[in-house]
Amino acid sequence: MELLLFDGFNGLIQGAFYALMALGLSLIISLNSIINFAHGGFMVIGAYLAFTLEPYIGFWGALFAGPILAGFLGILVERTLIRYMYGRSDPVYSLLLTFGLALIIEDVVRSIWGAQGVPFVIPGALGSPVSTVYFFLTGYRLFVIAAIALAAGALFAFLRLSRFGIRIRAGILDLETVSALGVNVYLLRSVNFAIGTLLAGFAGVLAAGILELVPTMGNDVIMATFVAIVVGGLGSLFGSVLGGLLIGLAAGVTSAYYPVASDVVIYIIMAVVLIVRPRGLLGQEGLFE
Amino acid sequence: MSRRLYVNGAIWLALLAVPLWLPLIGGYEALASRVLIYALGAMALNLLLGFTGCMSFGQAAYFGLGGYGTGLALTHLTNSTVVAVIAGTILGGAAGFVLGPLVMRRRGIYFAMITVAIGQIFYFIAERWNSFTGGEDGLAGFSRQPIHFGFATVPLNGLAFYYFVLFFFALGAGAIAVLLHSPLGHTFVAIRENRRRAQFLGIHIERYVWASFAIAGVIAGLAGALNALQNNFISPANLYWVESGNFVIMAVLGGMRNFWGPLVGAIIFIGIQDYVSSYFPNNWQTFIGGLFIVAVIFFPSGILGIVRQRTTAA
């Protein structure tokens, strides 16, 4: 029972990471129609930038600086490369371009910071265990869950309440009409892409406190992120969160009962969902086919 | 029509004469074998991607299965290299045939995702099933055996192995060529061009996608079998989605609407991997990725796509 609680809680944390990554990627897929394979790359860059800046600006500074820099990098990439993909009728080209980009990011990160893992230091107050009653739990893990919930809540509030957020949601439904109504959709797409990469960077910094930083850490996460989105349903932001939490929990619970299968279970879930409910749990029909 | 004949003839002659010209540009036999192996794998993918219009992002699964089939056959079952190749090919093809019904209804990005999912399932099985597949360390301990003809025994080393690979490459590529000129191949292209119209014409789209997927599995299995023999080793990395992505890069870079596109892409990919990594051991990915980005932005129809445009315009 304790093992199940421990693994289940770890699964929940993992699921929260996937949900945060999936939220950003889902925004980019829905509005920009870009299948962003480099999303894991932005996560890694955000984490490494935070690692580099931490000695100068401390943990809390790095927690914000890393994601913001990842967001700026997102704008830069969107303006120089991604924009060529907007006219293409087939979203597969964007997948190909960002796949190349992901290769470059991994390579650059390895050149700058080395292939060996580097540790990201978290404040002592967060690193200490808060409870050993049912299972071992550090404050940092609770903090991660709270931070992700806060970020997701802030995003949903932004999309519901701010004029810009409402325009993003309108653009997801019909970008052409939004453009015809006089909204600057170039800006809309750039900022939206940046929000997505910022969320990825935030996930990276938070993950850095739990895992060791390695240049390839994006590879496994990006696939799990796609799994979360497909399970939740393409085009549904809430579905992405649901999908992320679901596969994280499933992986956690599986590692309590049958550890060998803990990595493969999310792909089995995705395959089953795609066979039984092709549009995912909350997806809309007709997108990206 | 006759121009195509000359081009094809020239390509096959060049492949046959590799020992004559490859050393002049600093290549070696194992490199040429690797190019052919990956070209065959990319051609298998391209049957789906370029000619049926289905974005498979899990072709490494059948490539890797072919490798494991061959390795396991040599370890447990047989001493014959040819039988082992056939075993690997059948394993890859059987997997494609059995899994085809799961993927044939999906389109676009969903097709890519379900093929990835299936590929990753095989990857994790190979990585975790230590006792059977060697787990994370991969499967070693088998080696390619000499081939016995009636009159002589040929050890498969160096040049002999290159011709061994070329023989099977010719079989696989020839099969794809014959297929593409058959009614079946024309149906694949019709599905790529306009799925809905093909459906109106009474074509059972799903059955044909299934057929394409199964055939791509056979060819990828064959390529994987040869790959396992070349290295005398097969690792789970050959099943990982990044390897699938490499096949996609090769097909798109060379030109996915072209029969020879994957070969051109494989020459560039393996060439860069080999040459650049000897000068910049850690940065060859940047060269590949950069080239790939340039290709996707400026010439999405690939290198052979440009060549074709130039020659038809002139």
Number of helices of chain B: 15
Q: What topology, given as strand order, has the largest sheet of chain A?
A: 1-2
Helix content of chain B: over 70%
Low-confidence stretches of chain B: none
User: What is the global morphology of chain B?
Assistant: globular
Helical residues, percent of chain A: over 70%
Shape descriptor of chain A reads globular
Mean pLDDT of chain B: 87
- Amino-to-carboxy terminus distance of chain A: 44 Å
How would you describe the overall organization of this protein?
The complex is a heterodimer of chains A (289) and B (314). Chain A has 289 residues and is mainly alpha-helical. Chain A has a domain at 17-217. Helices cover 73% and strands 2% of the residues of chain A. Chain A is built from eleven helices and two strands, in the order H-H-H-H-E-E-H-H-H-H-H-H-H. Chain A has a two-stranded antiparallel ribbon with strand order 1-2. In chain A, a hairpin with a 5-residue loop joins strand 1 and strand 2. The mean pLDDT of chain A is 87. With 314 residues, chain B is mainly α. Chain B has a domain at 33-240. In chain B, 74% of the residues lie in helices and 1% in strands. Chain B has helices at residues 2-16, 18-21, 29-49, 60-77, 81-103, 108-128, 130-133, 158-180, 183-193, 195-200, 205-231, 241-254, 261-279, 284-298, 302-313; strands spanning 147-148, 153-154. A two-stranded antiparallel ribbon of chain B has the order 1-2. In chain B, helix 8 packs antiparallel against helix 11. The longest helix of chain B has 27 residues, at 205-231. Chain B starts with a helix and ends with a helix. The mean pLDDT of chain B is 87.
